[in-house]
UniProtKB/TrEMBL annotation:
Protein name as catalogued: 4Fe-4S ferredoxin, iron-sulfur binding domain protein
PANTHER family: ADENYLYLSULFATE REDUCTASE, BETA SUBUNIT (PTHR43687), FERREDOXIN III (PTHR43687:SF1)
Stated role: Ferredoxins are iron-sulfur proteins that transfer electrons in a wide variety of metabolic reactions.
Keywords from the named record: 4Fe-4S, Electron transport, Iron, Iron-sulfur, Metal-binding, Repeat, Transport
GO molecular function, one term: 4 iron, 4 sulfur cluster binding
Organism: Geotalea uraniireducens (strain Rf4) (Geobacter uraniireducens)
Record bears the keyword Electron transport: yes
Pfam families per the UniProt record, alphabetical: Fer4_7
Cofactor(s) in the UniProt record: [4Fe-4S] cluster
């Protein structure tokens, strides 16, 4: 199976891993991922829980993702799942 590949500056190839899901159950809404993503992929979502409201991160524009995985590296709760994209 062939996947979309990228090129480093030294012209060697790599396989980007694009955002697949964020686990809303484990997300604590810290926004670290939101701050590192420069491609408008993520947005906050608010859900009502009993007497309080919980914020969590949502994948809103998956097609903007460049597959850098910076969001996943910054997440201490390991909420992210990534996948390569088949050509
Ligand atoms: S993999 Fe990169 S571009 Fe995609 S959502 Fe995460 S930080 Fe943004
Ligand atoms: S870094 Fe992880 S825990 Fe924090 S908002 Fe993003 S997905 Fe949620």
């Amino acid at each position: 199976m062939a996947y979309i590949t990228g090129l480093r500056r030294n012209k060697t190839e790599y396989t980007p891993e694009f955002i697949k899901t964020i686990d809303a159950e484990t997300c604590i809404g810290c926004a670290r991922c939101f701050k590192v993503c420069a491609h408008d992929v993520l947005t906050f979502e608010e859900v009502d829980e009993d007497d309080s409201a919980k914020m969590y991160m949502k994948v809103s524009n998956p097609d903007n993702c460049i597959g850098c995985q910076a969001c996943g590296r910054t997440c201490s709760k390991k909420c992210f799942a990534f996948e390569p994209v088949v050509l």
